[in-house]
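Our consortium's second objective concerns turning raw sequence data into structural hypotheses that experimental partners can test. To show how far this objective has progressed, the report includes one record in full. It was chosen at random from the queue rather than selected for favorable results. The single chain below, 273 residues long, was entered without modification.
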Amino acid sequence: MPDAKAPYHLLSAYDGGEGFRLAVEHVANLLISDIDMPVMNGYEMCQRIKETESTHGIPILILSARGAGVDIDRGFDAGANDFLTKPVADNELLSRIEMMLDSTLTSQREKILVVEDSSVQRALITHSLAQQGFEIISGKDGEEGLELAIENVPDLVITDSEMPLMNGRDLTHALRQRDELKDIPVLMLTAADAPLNRAKGKHAGISAYLTKPFVPDKIVVIAEKLIAEHDTVLISEDTYDLIKDEIEAHMQGPIEMKGKSKPITVYQVESCL
């Protein structure tokens, strides 16, 4: 393997039991694990690391010859942050390592909940958004997605339209019934972009649609736009004059817009307002 850009302090373990012990003792910045190991397999080790207070924040990359959808699903369910199938090129492995380390050593951006029953699509979306520094939470169906939203209160929800147990529209409707979740933007992924489906989605409270298949960069652009719009506060000119000093103390830059009846100033402000 070629030398990395910066030296890494490496610890190695023969099995999952030893890997868990080293993770607890050293609290590593990143853990790379196989699945099939003696004593404790990779799934079990991932789960124990995520259940342990001192280690639950360690990002985990599973590197395995197992590459079926059920194996990838089980890895993410156990707490893995990324999954690579062997054999893997050295430059691809190093790229994933550097990306995952960067996301832990720098402050993370907004929190995004990804709800998708396809393990392949979920991994693709998660990887694309994590590369941009977003904190990612993922679920495999609408019911799990709702539970994760209640527990974590994300800044954006990206959900598939058709899923087992609870579909995307029902999930969105359930989010809109809760005070702490009702204003979170929801991006719906769908393979059937019919006008009737859009009308039903709008009624449920969906913010935007993205039709499958799509390139990964597009979902990043849409996610950033929806989060930015959600953080925008609309203030009338009269109101602005009354609280001008307080607003400008937190303002990141005004954008002038013209409303239908009177001018409106849109201010991008921090969440303290």
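The partners drew two points from this record. The chain has three domains: 1-106, 107-230, 232-269. Residues 232-269 form one domain. Both points have been shared with the crystallography group to help prioritize constructs.
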